Amino acid sequence: xxxxxxxxxxxxxxxxxxxxxxxxxxxxxxxxxxxxxxxxxxxxxxxxxxxxxxxxxxxxxxxxxxxxxxxxxxxxxxxxxxxxxxxxxxxxxxxxxxxxxxxxxxxxxxxxxxxxxxxxxxxxxxxxxxxxxxxxxxxxxxxxxxxxxxxxxxxxxxxxxxxxxxxxxxxxxxxxxxxxxxxxxxxxxxxxxxxxxxxxxxxxxxxxxxxxxxxxxxxxxxxxxxxxxxxxxx
Length: 234
What we know:
mainly beta, Jelly Rolls, seven-stranded antiparallel β-sheet, 22 strands
């Protein structure tokens, strides 16, 4: 089963400094049909104006993955961590027993991010944070794990969940396949840029595709595209 969730159907609000679109219920947006997708709880598509951002605030017991699409995000937290994650790169915060953090766009242009929250397999562990660059050339024509709870994904940032966050880049006319280990897995695919065909369903940039009951998917680029896919437990 594959369900297209068009960008135009997403919840969200424009706060001036932040233009946010929510694939799942978040903040003041609530849709009982879109509370979560398996262990995937949040997928926000955020545009952050320069010199603004999220002031310090707390989290606990959530895996928070940020995929930077454009610009950069600067992180600080109550553990003393600080770092800048630029376009194409990824940061992971395992909130664990509790952490406070801020995320600001300190660059001169806008920043666009996907912020993805995944429910952890275990709670109450010490919080941690990490960031890592991922060269686009390394995921050309194939899906590469960017953040993962699988032992076999040693090059990915670790998360405390039975889930993978993957990225791929496709040039127009090329395809990539992804195989789920079990048809009960829940996949969620969003083109960050471009336009693709997923089993006859056309997805434009920002559209979501909720996937389950599939063992293998094939995505063909109708234009040069960058893709992000979450493979999560039911």
